[in-house]
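This part of the workshop introduces the protein records we will be handling. Getting from the letters to the tokens is the skill we practise here. An example says more than a description, so a record of this kind follows:
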Amino acid sequence: MKRCIFYLLLSCCFISCHGQQPFGADLLTLEKEIQMPAVKGRIDHMAINLKDKMLYVAALGNNTVEAIDLNKGIVIRSIKGVEEPQGIAYLPEQNEIAVASGGNGDCVFFNAATLERVATVHLSGDADNIRYDSVDKKMFVGYGNGGMAKIDPATHKQIGDIKLAAHPESFQLDKKNDRMYVNLPDDHSIAVIDLKSFALLSKWKIDKYRANFPMTLDTSSNQVIIGFRHPATMVVYDSKTGNEISKIGLVDDVDDVFYDGAIQKVLASGGGGFINVFQKAPNGPYKRVSNIASRDGARTSFLVPSLRLFIVAERAEGGKVAAIAVYRIVATKG
């Protein structure tokens, strides 16, 4: 009886601390945790070299990029020389890694084989998210107090620039409709950019929610999916009109959301100690189908659809060293 009461109290404490209850743990299976004992502080974005199964992790608070062999489950090398690395992309055609510096605004290119610096494109400051268009072979970097740079990675030259109303956070490329959608949390808006002309088309103002940091797209349904921190809400917008379609509660301190078209689900990670999985309903709103407990502060994640992996960066916390948690996606469509 005493043992039952103990576990009941422990369960209630766990639920109240996080405001959510774990369920649906069978949708993701933790395959391995890859320790990064030398990494301290905040961890930002990730990229992958699929050919070599190498994961690149922007360890912002450590001023390093960690090169991790996913098959061996070990850190191969720490790349230094980038101040506060944030955005990161792998460029398969030239076997290079592009890293954006939040400190001085540099976008630095490294040879993926030797991990040596190849070139640098300097932006005005706070270079953040990077997106690579593998079709047109162009790269985009959000930076500064309000800028979006277009870069030709083959020549390592900036070839375009757009001024925005505030610092850009997550942005996504909609190749189906030749659009780019950009979160501008300090302006309480989402900017819409024409990819062909590389010009600002419009801006969707946000009235009911704040802190729109992560974003993903469901291009098959023409939907832009945004994670807000205040209140913690996932909101789905019509990509053509900007009209709100649906909303649902989300993990606290959300930092990444991904739409997995293969299973028609959204996966979200946040510092509130959970991974959320949402099921897309036919002609209806999303439903939360899973809350999987994660390490507190483990905000950043990365979806690798072709490998059916969901990767969560766990910063050093509570006596535990920093690590990369590698989950196998076992969820199916419907």
Summary: The domain at 25-39+210-334 is CATH 2.130.10.10 (Methylamine Dehydrogenase; Chain H). The CA atoms of residues 27 and 330 lie 5 Å apart. The chain has one helix and 28 strands.
